[in-house]
């Protein structure tokens, strides 16, 4: 058995599938893909994932992409490798359904809106630093049309109206999570699951730094307690120590500010 994991810094999607690998105690070969050097669009990486996106799991030559799929694959491929406090995907149908409900909510109603702010604030700095002709060449090398549009938009920036609408979606998610944590210890019930890892990686870990004006600690105390419990898990702490080449000026949400 050989696992290879191609990833960027331990944040968002790269963190989301790294944590289950650590939680399950699975040995893997780590391959850092430097997004700031656009290695995800290079020929060697596109040969691995034609979509030109991280992370990617290579299991004995079988390539698995998209984090929610990767995480479910790990549960199917390694069902007996689990944290001491229970499986990351509940074994009962109801528990599994609840986990998938929250994963779907994070994937569709949280991730993209957090991502918009990230691209506007951080990727925009990178995009505007590239000369015009070089930037056009960069766009041509991006396999996915939607990613080409995101890079082009990052160069000019999203509108204030779009950013405000995205913030509204994030506030709704925070309120929803806070309410759920008043009913159960974890998002999908009384057990820590892939759903917790998903929300933590995309929003819960860094929402206070991203949006200090939302007064997260005062308004969402259950979420803050939940975040501290997730952060305290040894596997999460180990994942957060993974390689991070993010330029210091761009470490708004990662690296030493963690």
Topology:
Layout: E1 3-7, H1 12-23, E2 29-32, H2 43-46, E3 56-59, E4 62-65, H3 67-77, H4 93-109, H5 111-128, H6 132-140, H7 145-156, H8 160-181, H9 194-204, H10 207-210, H11 216-219, H12 221-231, H13 234-240
Parallel strand pairs: 1-2
Antiparallel strand pairs: 1-3, 3-4
* Strand element count: 4
How many helix segments? 13
- What Rg, in angstroms, do the CA atoms define? 18 Å
The share of residues in extended strands comes to 5-15%
Decide which structural class fits the backbone. Answer: alpha+beta
Elements, N to C (H/E): EHEHEEHHHHHHHHHHH
Q: How widely separated are the two ends? A: 33 Å
Classify the helix fraction into a percent range. 55-70%
Report the average pLDDT across residues. 92
**Poorly predicted segments:** none
Task: Provide an overview of this structure.
- The protein has helices spanning 12-23, 43-46, 67-77, 93-109, 111-128, 132-140, 145-156, 160-181, 194-204, 207-210, 216-219, 221-231, 234-240, and strands spanning 3-7, 29-32, 56-59, 62-65.
- By secondary structure, it is an alpha+beta fold.
- Strands 2-1-3-4 form a four-stranded mixed sheet, covered by helices on one side.
- A hairpin with a 2-residue loop joins β3 (56-59) and β4.
- α5 (111-128) runs antiparallel to α8 (160-181).
- It starts with a strand and ends in an 18-residue tail after the last helix.
- The mean pLDDT is 92.
